Amino acid sequence: MSYLEVKDLKIHFPIKGGLFSRTVGHIKAVDGVSFSLDKGKTYGLVGESGSGKTTTGRSIIGLNNITSGQVLFDGVDITNIKRAKSDVRKDIQMIFQDPYSSLNPKKRVIDIVSEPLRNFENLTRKEERKRVQELMELVGLSPESILKYPHEFSGGQRQRIGIARAIALKPKLIIADEPVSALDVSVQAQVLNFMKDIQKELDLTYLFISHDLGVIKHMCDQIGIMYKGRYVEEGTADDIFFNPQHIYTKRLVAAIPDIDPNKREEKRKFREEVKAEYEKSYNDYFDEEGLAYKLQPVSDTHLVALPEKG
Amino acid sequence: MIKLGKKTEAGALQAQTPIKSPSGFSIIWRELVRDKVALISLIFLILIVSFVYGISLILDQDEIVKVDLLSIYQPPNDQFILGTDYGGRDIFGQLIIGTRNSLSIAILVTLMTGIIGIAYGLISGYFGGHIDNMMMRVLDFFNILPFTMIVIAFVAIVPKYSVTTFSLIMTGFLWMGIARLIRSKALQEKELDYIQASKTLGSSNFKIIFTQLLPNCSSLIIVTMTLNLAANIGLESGLSFLGFGFPESTPSLGTLLSYATNPQTLEFRWWIWVPASILILLLMLSINNVGQALKRATDARQRRG
Amino acid sequence: MWKFSVRRTLIMIPQLILLSIIIFVLAQLMPGDALSGQIGPDVDPARLDEIREEMGWNDPWYEQYGRWVGGVVKGDFGDSFRFKMPVSELIGQRIMNTVWLSIVTLILTYLIAIPLGIVSGRYNDTWKDQLVTGYTYVGFATPLFIFALVMLWLFGFKLGWFPTSGSVTPGLVSGTFEHFMSKVYHLILPAFSMALITTYSTIQYLRNEIVDTKQKDFIITARAKGASEKRVYNRHILRNSLLPIAAFFGYEITGLIGGSIFIENIFGFPGMGQLLVESITLRDYSVLTATTLLFGVASIVGALISDIILSIVDPRIRIK
């Protein structure tokens, strides 16, 4: 039984033009994406910038309008989440990419973290303060700092504040949109491990959006690879990293840096081989418009976008 | 800027006293004090405002506007420090009451245009798209109309003309400037993640606009309203000068100047119009100075250090 | 470019309709009508009612509006009951004075603004720049009418260099050289007074534009390639900065109208601005509606022209 199910999701943005700004065409940011998430697991959505991964995540929580398709959460249709009942809205929260712009610079931490509480729960000032302090402690920040402003914190600390805000309502699903891309590499690991910790603690399900396969490998149980608004491959972490089938995935996986300096030359050769293969077989994997084909199953868990046989 | 680890006693103290954000009022204040011209302007303003409002408490407006035919057009003397006008009325008294009236209406109009303009700009910028498009068309139309002309035309038709109707008419055609500035600020801000975050946290649009967006426009609002205040003093006195502002029974800086439309007064009776002119100039210059200093203070690139 | 121009022109149509409706409603709300001035002991009120009926003043508003717009399009604004002549004729006498005042002011504005703006922008943060900036600062804070009063007092009354009212010395025959010179003579002081105050915005714009352009990569490249300072300014910076200013003249119309209302009243200059104020004090509503309509249309068309020229000069604004 899947927890979050996305069925044939399409998000098209109109292109305006002509004398009266009529819609003359569409940009297909997301073009027929389906996937499903299991409870308590982390699902990674990978792709280059412009591949539609962020748009997909944002549309689930209602920041982008869905053109067609369906989103089911715990069996409830939340395609139009803006009109959904408030308890569903409480259950899905988001962590943003940029910890600098995602916190209102004019607000104190207590006001930032308690914003969701004020919207959904009737707490007294005192209770609210206590809850915020607990949350701050939970994310590893000093409970005394709730009267500070965001600019008094470092990037990693700010992202923790963002996480505290996201978990304030005890959500079930968290959409994490590149949560560590804006952070220093040294801080990235801290935040990622911390996210894993609270996942266990609060029984969270993550939809983890990233362009960084290293981060995805560290975090995710299941992975979907997107390219130009479509899926090219989906599978478990093992499927994707040890048995990539699509040439695009192969190239992505080959590009993951290896720490061992002895393998550097080997790695470089391998990368070039994959590149040669990519160029040679590009037409076999993409249609005339350069888009991916429909997904075909290669095993129980593993789906690859390949032209239909025959 | 970054503070790590557990708080010491000093830290706990800090947590109790609010710490200002980087564009907070303390920095603005510091900039203002550092800017000598602005500081002098501010002190001058405080002095003049307290003087004018203080003195006008003991002055009797009815007494001042009472016609005294025995003392028409007296040059400055012991009894009348600044002489008298064609009705034998004391110019000094009219100057004090007039400055008070001019300042009061300028402040009132600035506040009213501010409220309308801010709300209009925030809504237009936040929602964007078709709503923004339509609201901007309306704004453009108001903006194109020559202000003096349209206000004069409205003043001419209002049946029960009073200070209230005058300020309402002025407000009706002065909200566009601040609305446009706030709108472009709102357009920038709404793309930032903290607004998106608020949406995912279940805040209503109304709440986001007024509790998230508005505080981030505060420095722009303060600067614009200060500069508008100076402009409104000029506009009011201009309209009163033409005879379409304050009624003559309510002296303002503009009504004093309107005596100068009489060539005799302009040429030979300087005491009637020169003090009011100087006062208008000083008021507008010093308010502008303060406004420009605030502008520099809120714009980090222009900050003097 | 065509798309923008056509779209921009289409936007103007509702603006014009809205303006005409506002002015029509204003005219309807004005206390009394053209006949109320004629009420007297020897006039029979019943006869006035008859006239009102004949003139169609009791018809529904949209019929009256239609008739009024129909007349306006043909240049018929009705009769002025104070001046006892058709409004169009009255305006005809005045409008050229205002047009000339505006043109001379505009020319003076640019003549002052361009050299000052260039000096201020080119030598920014030197004493020259500070001088110019100080001037724009004071110009920004000084209300036009006070400055005009001081100019009139100083140059008109105290020094007696210029006439203190009128647009031409009475008695001169139109078309002669003396008549022309007299007109110019009467224009100089009002136009200068307005130009000296209104020019500050153009100076500021030009200065900021030049200071901004100076730091752009293509200027640095031009310098690095060894282009002379003169060539950098004439070929690169000024071309980029002056064109938008030239395009602003349409927007200036709104400001010029506001200014002319003050200037014409202070300098006793018989133009449209003075007519507007007179029409209100005399309660001559047909003249008032005609002047406001003309001023409004001039502003709307001015903005249209500037928008279109700017869209050609500066493609960035087309995006919005």
TrEMBL record, chain A:
Pfam family, one: oligo_HPY
GO BP annotations, alphabetical order: peptide transport; transmembrane transport
Origin superkingdom: Bacteria
Gene3D superfamilies: P-loop containing nucleotide triphosphate hydrolases
Xref: SMART domains: AAA
Domain ABC transporter intervals: 4-253
Annotated gene: oppF_2
GO molecular-function term, one example from the UniProt record: ATP binding
Name of the protein in question: Peptide ABC transporter ATP-binding protein
SUPFAM superfamilies to which the protein is assigned, alphabetical: P-loop containing nucleoside triphosphate hydrolases (SSF52540)
Family: Belongs to the ABC transporter superfamily.
Keywords: ATP-binding, Nucleotide-binding, Transport
UniProtKB/TrEMBL annotation, chain C:
Cellular component annotations (GO), alphabetically ordered: plasma membrane
Chief site of localization: membrane
Alphabetized PROSITE patterns for the sequence: ABC_TM1
GO biological process: transmembrane transport
Superkingdom of this protein's organism: Bacteria
Localization (cell): Cell membrane
Segments crossing the lipid bilayer: 99-119, 131-155, 184-206, 241-267, 287-313
Keywords: Cell membrane, Membrane, Transmembrane, Transmembrane helix, Transport
Database matches in Gene3D superfamilies: MetI-like
Stretches assigned to the ABC transmembrane type-1 domain: 95-306
Isomerase is among the record's keywords: no
Membrane topology type: Multi-pass membrane protein
Entry similarity comment: Belongs to the binding-protein-dependent transport system permease family.
Stated name of the protein: Peptide ABC transporter permease
Organism: Ornithinibacillus bavariensis
Chain's gene name: oppB_2
